[in-house]
Design goal:
The structure holds two protein chains of two kinds. By secondary structure, chain A is α/β, with parallel strands linked by helices. Helices cover 36% and strands 17% of the residues of chain A. Chain A folds into three domains: 171 residues, 3-Layer(aba) Sandwich (Rossmann fold); 169 residues, Rossmann fold, CATH 3.40.50.1220; 179 residues, Rossmann fold (3-Layer(aba) Sandwich), CATH 3.40.50. In chain A, the strands form five sheets. Chain A has a six-stranded parallel sheet with strand order 3-2-4-5-7-6, with helices on both faces. In chain B, β6 and β7 form a beta hairpin. The chains are: A alpha/beta, B alpha+beta. Chains A and B meet through β6 of A and α1 and α2 of B. Chain A: This is Acetolactate synthase.
Chain lengths: 578, 163
């Protein structure tokens, strides 16, 4: 059998796992591993500018491909800098394996240079973690880490590797395990047939049904099956922020996003529904508004791969634990076998009601923002970009108003196209995530929709884009303030704008982009918006920073009324309430 | 409601911290906690007493099951079960008090396991309620130090928690 050092074993195990890309940043404790990377060919390593960027880039890669993202960082600050990105992946159930260097085993606990208890620091934000005790363990640990990260409800797994374990002087026989058995981990597979049958019967008896689909449908590759089911039944579908793309955004059955900034028709339909089919969604507080007032007349079917997500905040009438794919497939088979159909007249009435809601306040039936002013409206920027890119781009985003505008107005038709930090709400996610997506899909248009606040949280990654020639578009909806914070302050704090405005301190983003070797473009006048955007999107071989000055006073609507509001209680504009 | 949850988990470093961490992270209570290896040295058995309504207990058991190190668990309070806790208590005992303490120990079927001229160390095993009652019987003034093991439990009958 071949003898390898721990460092070489680690890299070989990654190769044997099918990894061809790592995002990382070297440092003392990881140097043996970095040397092993230098001496091999199969894996490409992307050097980021900050470890947070590495985790977000790997995360973007994972969301766009479905494969686990891989990160390599050193101990201490390298590890702690990765924490935000690990938490981001954890909250959105993204498969990721993070390898962190650690001080040598005999120094652990001595407050050694660049020592931090990574397993401890990351414990509440990982699916699992390993501290490697000897080189011989490495192949099995790597195998387990990838298995855990990518099965069941996916999530990040940390492998903490003390430096002595990777010592090039100590060599051990290497064999990558073919099979894996873990007595303590059995991810959910197929759903219970009886429960699925009951769910289908309830669904068919519905008079006011809504399908509420979340990120699990995207992550679990269930979008096609979901679309088939919704179309077979002719039922309305709403997606969560994480689920956008799980159902085609341009289909007439799509109600738009639901929740805090969901559409009027989606939230109102949910409120009046008699049966809600929740799949791959977790009744997040940004979806349900006040749990006690959530959908008072609805019976709830809840499909999720994670039993702990079921009946956590909203009690399910019919819980089904299983993968999205298997449950949907079983349900479609049963539907076909039974030949049953819902009550057509009830569904026609329901659609008539929904169409009326759409007509009254829907954001897709008429612009619900100002269209006659001199200032550029953020909504029309996203709408224009949607048109120019044919709705087919990969769109990453940061966090804030721009994120909501992108979610509302870039109507995603396909899964894995909308990549944002929904659960943790991490500013700084967008740019590094876009780089990860671009590496996965070099021939596709990749846009980072951002704001002048968020972009500055990981702006250093502009340099990574230069080094690896990653021509993404950065679309900055610049309102010279922390827009969402400001919106809340205006709505709930009588306009006291505590620390949410930049007061002439913003950099010249055009020059900044140029300093990194990219192209910068500033758009300020409404009449030049479309032409300039078209010009920017015609450039395919350079990173373009498009700094669009938008109306700084604009708010995101609809916005659910808080606290104590129900799903249907919304602000529709600054003055109009349901 | 008070529940006794018994967990079989991998006897690995860090496993206990994951369980304890879960409780603090999600705001669950731990009243008592005991843990020791089992006859199979790759497994530890952890028993905890927690308080919560049915919804909370369901979430606790689901989230415990989600931990990769947890192999199996049971809520012992769902069925009939035996629970025991061990109490060691140092009691002031001099003069007339000595007989008084000894009588209480006998009533509660405890044992005096250490003696000096001024004190007894008493060992009592039983349910938590029984130990509470014994301490109450002794009275605050005589008690010098108390140590309790936390609850261990096992199901009655042929039901076993094993892999």
């Amino acid at each position: 059998m071949e003898l390898l050092s721990g460092g070489d074993m680690l890299v070989r195990a990654l190769q044997d796992e099918g990894v061809d890309l790592i995002f990382g940043y070297p440092g003392g404790s990881a140097l043996h591993i970095y040397d092993a990377i230098f001496r091999q060919k199969g894996i490409k390593h992307v050097l980021v500018r900050h470890e947070q960027g590495a985790t977000h880039a790997a995360d973007g890669y994972a969301r766009a491909t479905g494969k686990p993202g891989v990160v390599l960082v050193t101990s201490g600050p390298g590890a702690t800098n990765a924490i935000t990105g690990i938490a981001t992946a954890y909250m959105d159930s993204i498969p990721m394996v993070v390898i962190s260097g650690q001080v040598p085993s005999d120094k652990i606990g001595e407050d050694a240079f660049q020592e931090t208890d990574m397993v401890g620091c990351s414990r509440p934000i990982v699916k699992h973690s390993f501290l490697v005790k000897s080189a011989e363990e490495i192949p099995a640990v790597v195998k387990k880490a990838f298995y855990i990260a990518s099965t069941g409800r996916p999530g990040p797994v940390v492998i903490d590797v003390p430096k002595d374990v990777t010592n090039p002087a100590d060599r051990f026989p290497y064999e990558y395990p073919e099979k894996l058995r873990m007595r303590s981990y059995t991810p959910a597979g197929k759903g219970h047939t009886g429960q699925i049958r009951k769910a289908l019967a309830l669904l068919l008896s519905a008079r006011r049904p809504v399908i509420y689909a979340g990120g699990g449908v995207v992550q679990g590759d269930g979008a096609e099956l979901l679309t088939e089911l919704a179309q077979a039944l002719n039922y309305p579908v709403t997606n969560t922020l994480m689920g956008l793309g799980a159902y085609p955004g341009s289909d007439r059955r799509f109600l738009g996003m639901l929740g805090m900034h969901g559409t009027f028709e989606a939230n109102t339909a949910m409120h009046h529904a008699d049966v809600i089919f929740a799949i791959g969604a977790r009744f997040d507080d940004r979806v349900t508004n006040t749990p006690g007032k959530f959908c008072p007349g609805a019976k709830i079917i809840h499909v999720d791969v994670d039993p702990a997500s079921i009946s956590k905040t909203i009690v399910a009438d019919i819980p089904i634990v299983g993968t999205v794919q298997s449950v949907l497939r079983d349900m479609l088979d049963m539907l076909r076998e039974s030949g049953e159909q819902p009550d057509q007249s009830a569904i026609v009435d329901w659609w008539r009601q929904i169409d009326d809601w759409r007509e009254r306040h829907g954001i897709y039936t008429a612009p619900r923002y100002r269209t006659d002013g001199a200032l550029i409206m953020p909504q029309e920027v996203i709408t224009a970009v949607h048109e120019i890119t044919g709705g087919d781009a990969f769109v990453t985003s940061d966090v804030g108003q721009h994120q909501m505008f992108a979610a509302q107005y870039y109507r995603f038709d396909k899964p894995r196209r909308w990549i944002n930090s929904g659960g943790l709400g991490t500013m700084g996610f967008g740019l590094p995530a876009a780089l990860g997506v671009k590496i996965a899909h070099p021939d596709s248009e990749v846009i980072c929709v951002t704001g002048e606040g968020s972009i500055q949280m990981c702006i250093q990654e502009l340099s990574t884009a230069t080094q690896y020639h990653l021509p993404v578009k950065i679309l900055c909806l610049n309102n010279q303030a922390l827009g969402m914070v400001k919106q809340w302050q205006e709505m709930q704090y009588e306009g006291r704008l505590s620390n949410s405005v930049y007061e002439e301190s913003l950099p010249d983003f055009v020059k900044l982009a140029e300093a990194y070797g990219h192209l910068g473009m500033k758009i300020e006048r409404r009449e030049e918006l479309r032409d300039k955007l078209a010009e920017a999107f015609a450039i395919k071989d350079r990173t373009v920073f498009i700094d669009v000055y938008v109306d700084p006073s604009e708010h995101v609507y609809p916005m659910q009324v808080m606290p104590n509001g129900s799903m249907r209680d919304m602000w529709l504009s600054k003055t109009e309430r349901t | 409601m008070r529940r006794i949850i018994s967990v079989l988990m991998e006897n690995e470093p860090g496993a206990l911290s994951r369980v304890v961490g879960l409780f603090s992270q999600r705001g669950y209570n731990i009243e008592t906690l005991t843990v020791a290896p089992t006859e199979d040295e790759t497994l530890s058995r952890l028993t905890m007493v927690t308080i919560g309504d049915d919804h909370k207990i369901e979430q606790i058991t689901k989230n415990l099951n989600k931990l990769i190190d947890v192999v199996k668990l049971v809520d012992l309070t769902e069925g009939s079960h035996i629970e025991r806790e061990l109490l060691l208590v140092k009691v002031r005992a001099s003069g007339a008090q000595r007989d008084e303490v000894k009588r209480s120990v006998d009533i509660f079927r405890g044992q005096i396991v250490d003696v000096t001229s001024n004190m007894y160390t008493v060992q009592v095993a039983g349910t938590s309620d029984k130990l509470d009652a014994f301490l109450q019987a002794l009275g605050e003034h005589t008690i010098m130090e108390v140590v309790r093991s936390g609850v261990s439990g096992i199901a009655r009958g042929e039901k076993v928690l094993s892999i």
